[in-house]
Design brief:
The chain is of the alpha+beta class. It has one domain. The protein has twelve helices and eight strands. A four-stranded antiparallel sheet has the order 1-2-7-4, sandwiched between helices. Bound molecules: cobalamin and iron/sulfur cluster (2 copies).
Length: 313
């Protein structure tokens, strides 16, 4: 019978070969430490209009509600960083790095995870003769992706609330796999934000009201992506029309000499909409908007909210 540590190593190399840059494994358990923070955060209304975070609270803190037989949770990092930078100029709308390319990360990562899970199932069958079940997620499922990634050492929790990896910073998505198989578990790594608080000082709206705490009511990313209603008058979007990268752009761990960029060129910005004037954006018709952004997370934004965001900068 193959040892759990050898099997874990083989699964991890499948993950790296699939295109992920870091992988960590946690034992599945009910989240007890962070669940109190989460509850307080919700009770203070920091989730803004994201009611779905409240209604799925019990699932988010309890992975067994998603998959009752889950034993292990694999967390994966998929880098989307590219060397391009926005021009700091009035009248130039900004789309966040994660969305400015010709690719919807949900689709691309789900496709990779689907194939990876087939390979993991096959490997386990081959090595142990056991048939296992694997379930994969990226972003949309009611699970605490950052919590599991931190627990398994994929990165530490930055004071901007985002997971940071010591080798390649924080411009990566998290993919997650639940499986009903015991594996060898990883441990968390040290938090090396230390005395730094550049992200807190740089957030232009004060959304990072405390270390490790974000108030979505004041976050540009929330207002430009998730807010379904009017953006309050006191929120200055600082030219961001989809997402916001400020608290990551300023982070020293995203500004190292040998930055590691995504291997996937689809994450490069779409030339047509990169560092172009606001007028060009405003001239996009509804049909063009759907055609241009069908392969981007912006496809989730209604055309009327695209216009809403543009009119607010
Ligand atoms: C809701 C959501 C948002 C919301 C809320 C953001 C947030 N900080 O939670 C909004 C719309 C604002 C948002 C924005 C962004 N998001 Co988002 N988002 C999510 C989602 C769907 C859920 C996150 C969640 O559970 N939030 C709830 C809050 C309560 O959780 P939390 O921040 O982890 O807060 C906890 C800690 O603060 C902790 N805590 C509080 N005090 C203390 C003190 C100490 C000492 C400690 C240890 C802990 C602690 O307790 C809190 C409660 O659990 C996840 C996907 C998923 N399913 O997990 C993606 C996700 C977090 N988002 C992601 C991304 C990329 C972004 C953006 C960068 C996109 C952009 N450029 O605009 C921004 C980043 C903004 C920011 N500074 O966080 C990635 C992050 C990847 C990474 N490397 O970490 C995720 C994981 C999606 C993915 N699969 O890749 N997002
Ligand atoms: S995404 Fe932008 S607005 Fe939101 S916390 Fe970071 S810097 Fe502040
Ligand atoms: S800017 Fe500084 S405090 Fe903020 S996440 Fe990066 S290292 Fe941590």
């Amino acid at each position: 019978m193959i040892e759990s540590s050898t099997l874990t190593k083989k699964i991890k190399s499948l993950c790296i070969n699939a295109g992920f840059s870091a992988v960590g494994v946690s034992k599945a358990e009910i989240i007890t430490d962070e669940s109190d923070y989460f509850l307080t955060w919700l009770s203070e209304g920091r989730n803004a209009g994201m009611e779905w975070l409240k209604t799925t609270y019990h699932q988010r803190i309890n992975p067994f509600k998603i998959f009752p037989e889950v034993k292990s949770i694999i967390s994966l990092a998929y880098i989307y960083n590219t060397p391009f930078k926005h021009k700091e100029q009035k009248n130039i709308p900004k789309i966040s790095k994660h969305a400015w390319g010709n690719v919807d990360y949900h689709k691309v990562i789900k496709r990779i995870l689907k194939e990876l899970c087939i390979k993991i199932n096959f490997l386990v069958k081959n090595q142990t003769n056991k048939t296992i079940t694997t379930v994969y997620f990226v972003d949309t499922a009611p699970i605490m992706e950052k919590y599991w990634a931190i627990k398994s050492g994929v990165g530490w929790r930055g004071k901007n609330t985002i997971v940071i990896n010591p080798q390649f910073g924080s411009f990566f998505f998290i993919g997650t796999i639940f499986l009903n198989l015991e594996l060898e578990y990883d441990t968390a790594i040290d938090n090396i934000c230390n005395e730094c608080d550049i992200c807190l000082k740089s957030c232009p709206t004060g959304a990072l009201y405390n270390e490790y705490n974000l108030d979505a009511n004041r976050c540009i990313s929330y207002h430009t992506i998730e807010n379904k209603n009017e953006i309050p008058d006191n929120i200055n979007l600082h030219n961001w029309i989809y997402g916001c990268d400020i608290c990551q752009n300023v982070c020293p761990y995203n500004n190292v000499k040998k930055t590691i960029y995504s291997q996937n060129k689809d994450f490069n910005p779409k030339n047509k909409f990169f560092n172009k004037s606001k007028d060009l954006y405003l001239n996009v018709t509804e049909e063009e908007f759907h055609n241009e952004f069908s392969n981007s997370p912006l496809s989730r934004l209604k055309f009327q909210n695209w216009i809403r965001n543009l009119r607010r900068i």
